[in-house]
Amino acid sequence: MHRPGxxxxxxxxxxxxxxxxDGIPWxxxxxxxxxAFAEALRDRGVEVLYMGELLQDVLEYEFAxxxxxxxxxxxxxxxxxxxxAVAGHLSGLHPEDLxxxxxGGLAHEELKPGHGLVYELMDRHDFxxxxxxNLLFTRDSSAWIGDQVAVTSLAMPARRRETxxxxxxxxxxPRFAGVRTVYERTLEHxxxxxxxxxxxxxxxxxxxxxxxxxxxxxxxxxxxxxGLAHTVLAVPIAQDRATMHLDTVCTMVxxxxxxxxxAVADSLIAYAVTSDGGDLRVAPPRPFLEAAAAAMGIERxxxxxxxxxxxxxxxxQWDDGNNTLAVGPRLAVAYERNVETNARLEAEGIEVIRIxxxxxxxxxxxxxxxxxxxxxxxx
Length: 379
Hints:
13 helices
């Protein structure tokens, strides 16, 4: 997880669109809500790791530090003189302070030794190093499939440094020594929010503008070669601010149950991709629920929808009612404000851990988006 920090304080009505954040959160409240979310997980026996702390750890190593700095100063907007000044400034920072800048950004006025034409022509409110407010949504920059990690390739340029920092942690932190990578950030676009692990050996991948068909194809080849899956379901989705990734319209809450936005439940289709002697076989499209049940080897995948009427369903969809985090079978974390969705989950035997999200939800993401499970106990 990533605890909200200075990067959210950088958001203003002038820059939030550029930084891909829907609202301007009350940062103190967002942090309190995030702390309560983390504590609710710990209460259920979950170990919580924070990206900021992991990043600070790896920046103690000179080779990792040099890699992190190179990823910042290669920005073509800087020009040679400003690039030199930025490199000099960052290289002298303590690991904790450097981690703060890499996540929270560096404003024009904060670089005192700045000089050169690029520096002089910048607005004083501009960022020399952009903050990363969307790092809050750790699910997007990586996803674990079995015991291997997919470091994803984010489509939006404003978010690509997130995967660089995530990759840095998995590559250099002793905690992840020996971990194998099944996907790299330099490959075709794949985003973690589009990946659902429906059952052992079955991966659903939403595909559209964020996760491209080419990305799904590459991912399928990689997971088949690694023996991590026997079926990848390619699921086309129409993307907007309320249906950004597959996990914004559908998430698992039990071994045979999903919570799903009713507006797409009957229209969503899937192409089952399997391996055929080293090549890929793509089956004709089928309704998603049918294709998923067949791949999972079950008779039916039960749907719990977000609301009884279209107005409630649409409202709770906007409030991330479908973006639940399954802590275990029949146990899920959800925003407390999605009253109807939570009631329907409980009516189907799902225990709901309610968390507050009045400020956390301002970036359009729920509990699943804000967490990246690394290791789960077996069923």
